[in-house]
Amino acid sequence: MKHFVLFIATVFTILFIAYLNKNQSFLVHDQKPTVKIFTYSSFSSKWGPGPVLKEMFEKTCDCHVDFLEGADAGILLQRLKIEGEKLGADLVIGLDQYDLQKAVVQSNWRTLEFSNLDIDPQIKAALKNEFFVPYDWGVLTFVTRDNPSIEIPSPLSLDQLLEKPFFRKIALQDPRTSSVGLQFVMWVLKIKGEEAGYKYLSQMMRQVQSFSPSWSASYGLFKSGQADLVFSYTTSPLYNQIEEKNTHFKALEMVEPNPVQVEFVGIPTSCQHCDLAEKFLNVMLSVEGQKVIMEKNYMLPVFKKAAEGTAFEKIPIPFRLMNVQFPTVSDIDRILKRWSDLRRESNL
Amino acid sequence: MIVAFFESVKYSGHMVAISFLRIFLGYYYLQDAIVKFKGDFLVRPRVAEMISEYLPASHAPEWYKWILSTYMVSHWQGLAFIFLGIQLSIAISYIIGYVVRPTALLAGLFTLQMLYLSNPASHDLLKILLAVHIVFAWLGAGRCLGFDYYFFKRVRGFWW
Q1: Touching check for B121 and chain A: CB below 8 Å?
Q2: Among A3, A183, A210, B28, fewest CB within 10 Å belongs to which?
Q3: Per the structure, how many domains does chain B have?
Q4: Could you tell me if residue B46 is inside a domain?
């Protein structure tokens, strides 16, 4: 036992000395203010828009930008609620329209004056709140491949998805854990009305190949050929085309108006460097910032100008889009509870 | 001591495969510890983030959750240092085969702790690691291709 204690003590001592040596370089870092940005991991990861925006901002602000990561928007809100001021977030990036009401109930936010922004008219409704500003958006639809194992009509309607050829061919997301999954449920309920919508969702349970916990998991299943259709973004095939040189995927035209997902950024009242946070927000909303977000996040820019001359300009945006909805927290909870009941009843 | 290190293969050759697993696992822990040390694990609240993110949903006892969220989140620097120190100790001990039995018990407790604090996606791996640490402690995996053989022969006792 003496050997063990000595061994552990030696390792910890060596680690401590190494840490002290290493720490010298961080002392310089502390002299500048650090803007803490709380966001989901794919935004701040090395392939996301975060690092490029950080570099752009740090060139002009005489400050440092630190990303605090959460797995997704749900985790962001949970941590904001639990840790509040202790978290020290100056800016929160990545809430979608279904998170906003919850965010307002759970935390306090600074009022932002961006109502006069000349954003894309398709998402003008997203400016109707005073605490959050949209920074990108996407249109959701079903995506398929060039030679699916079934014949897919174009335009495709929601009702056709319940027909026999689509049995176990559709990859969807669990609305309790995926914002895209929640988009699908809200879309159906909006198009069909509540009761008919639940009936439709109940029938859909049998048709679906799987309800994945996240969008990426469902898209992976689709890409590996386990499903012929996946509920995704109209920009997804462009991602495959640019990043993977794969041109075999296409977004389908739908009979019904397509749902829209808008992502927002907000500044909590507990911010330490509120002015810098607002400046970072302005960088995100600049044409250059919008281009970075568009090209790294594969979402549409809120200003049409940012897409000019890029591949994103050629993405056909459906003629009819659904208005951006802001359901209350209790509405979402009630809908998710009902969906969970339907899922349980389907015994799948 | 060096002679005993290699001589151990002759007298406890039946444990060579276990020793391979031990050294491999030590290398795995060493790699992870180096990445954490070179990165920002010690200077940014990664541990606090992990606790805040995964502890609320974990199956840890309530008193344990309370201690972690009340005291450990605010003292994340000390906790990060302890975590890294333990990982490094496991790595070195497993690679050179020294004090493997007590270290394996420590590694088991550390893995159990990580089961409460980490992403559910890694739980399967952690459970397997837990079983491996228990087997190392059970067999005294440092006695083959390790310095434990030297002490086992001379000092004897439960811990070798």
Answers
A1: no
A2: B28
A3: 1
A4: no
Which residues does A138 contact at the CB level (< 8 Å), separation at least 6? Answer: A233, A234, A235, A260, A261, A299, A300
Query: From CA A91, how far away is CA A30, in angstroms rounded?
Result: 19
Residue type, B13: G
- Per-residue pLDDT of B36-65, as tens digits, reads 888 778 877 778 877 877 877 778 888 888
> What is the DSSP annotation of A60-110?
HHSSEEEEEEESSHHHHHHHHHHHGGGG--SEEEEEETTTHHHHHHHS-B-
Partners of B53 on chain A (C-beta within 8 Å) are 70-71, 75, 78-79
Q: Which domains does chain A have, with CATH numbers?
A: 26-137+261-314 (3.40.190.10), 139-260+327-345 (3.40.190.10)
Write the CB contacts of B82 (distance below 8 Å, at least 6 apart in sequence): none
**pLDDT, greater one: B140 or A137:** A137
Closest chain B C-alpha to A49 CA, distance in angstroms: 20
Say what the pLDDT of residue A27 is.
Answer: 55
Nearest-by-Cβ selection for B52 from A3, A66, A83: A83
Length, in residues, of chain B: 160
Instruction: Give the E-state strand segments of A122-213 in sequence order.
Output: 132-145, 170-173, 208-212
Name which of B74, B89, B105 to mutate to probe chain A: the one with the most chain A Cβ atoms within 10 A of its Cβ.
B89
| Nearest CA-CA partner of A188 in A219, A165, A162 | A162
> Cα separation of A266 and A112, whole Å?
8
- Inter-chain Cβ pairs, chain A and chain B, closer than 8 A: 59
Q: Which two tokens stand for residue A200?
A: 């439709």
> Tens of pLDDT along B61-80?
888 888 887 777 778 888 89
CB atoms within 10 A of CB B53: 19
Contact A259, A187 (CB under 8 A): yes
* pLDDT at residue number B21: 94
Is B44 part of any domain?
no
How far is it, in rounded angstroms, from Cα B127 to Cα B132? 9
Whether B57 is covered by a domain: the verdict is no
Q: Residue B115: which residues within 8 A CB-CB, separation 6 or more?
A: B58, B123, B126, B127, B130
Q: For residues B85-104, give the mean pLDDT.
A: 93
Note the pTM of the prediction, 2 decimals: 0.67
Domain with B111, as residue range(s), is: 2-39+83-154
